[in-house]
Specification:
With 73 residues, this protein is of the alpha+beta class. It has three helices and two strands.
């Protein structure tokens, strides 16, 4: 059985365009607030977390990825 942390981490690795915490409930069945906490934990763990957001973007809508985010689209 995979943990919430494993599911979020695998999603962040798999996406090259980034994924928001708001999308995690639909994609990996992890609640938005829990996904944000896991992302913060992964940052503390030293994972190569990248983020993409405009000025004033709410935290739950920031795009996150492990590794660079492809901004070409």
């Amino acid at each position: 059985m995979t943990t919430d942390k494993q599911r979020v981490k695998e999603l962040l690795i798999a996406t090259k365009y980034g994924v928001s915490a708001a999308e995690c409930p639909m994609i990996v069945q992890v609640a938005e607030a829990r996904a944000l906490a896991i992302i913060e934990e992964l940052i503390r763990d030293g994972e190569d977390i990248h983020s993409l957001a405009g000025d004033g973007t709410p935290e739950h809508l920031v795009l996150y990825s492990i590794g660079p985010i492809d901004e070409s689209i």
